[in-house]
Amino acid sequence: MNIDKPTQRQVIRYSYLWLREAKGGHEQGRKDRPCAIVLVAPDEQNRDQVLVAPITHSPPAGVGNAIELPAAVKAQLGLDSRRSWIVTTELNRFRWPGPDLQRLDDDAVYGELPMPLFRQLVQSMKVNIRAGRLRTVTRTE
């Protein structure tokens, strides 16, 4: 996988800043974690802006707040065997590659989500957008 050009569905290692941390005045994530790239779009200077959803071991607080990563997908990505969820109620937005992208050996990409799982992720986010539950933390360089 190449980190030069981000693509939807990639799972990257990233220092994710939770909304609650940003509201508390933090500017840096407290730990590196896998995150799924949900959207890549050019900004005014034609540089890639990326939206990422965090992957966590913490069970979701409510129905529709996250989707579970199947064990087979976790194994394919090289992640641990503990249950994990992709959060669908918050995102980080940053200009690629940004200072918070973390390398794994010579890369920062674990792999890609299978298309059916990615569609499920996007659908859950659409539901949360319509319900006013999706929040974005815009990161600085």
- The total beta strand count reads 8
Radius of gyration: 14 Å
**H/E element string?**
EHEEEHEEEHE
**Could you list the spans in which at least 5 consecutive residues all have pLDDT below 50?**
none
Report mean pLDDT, rounded to a whole number: 93
Question: What is the strand content?
Answer: 25-35%
Can you tell me the overall shape?
Answer: globular
Distance between the termini: 24 Å
CATH topology (level 3) name: SH3 type barrels
The number of helical segments is: 3
* Number of discrete domains: 1
- What CATH architecture label applies? Roll
What percent of the residues sit in helical stretches (DSSP H or I)? 10-25%
Helix and strand composition category: alpha+beta
What would CATH call the class?
A: Mainly Beta
Q: Tell me about the biggest sheet?
A: 8 strands, mixed
Summarize the structure in words.
The protein has three helices and eight strands; from the N terminus they run βαβββαβββαβ. With 141 residues, it is an alpha+beta fold. The protein has one domain: SH3 type barrels, CATH 2.30.30. Strands 1, 2, 3, 4, 5, 6, 7 and 8 form an eight-stranded mixed beta sheet that branches. A hairpin with a 5-residue loop joins strand 2 and strand 3. The radius of gyration is 14 Å and the shape is globular.
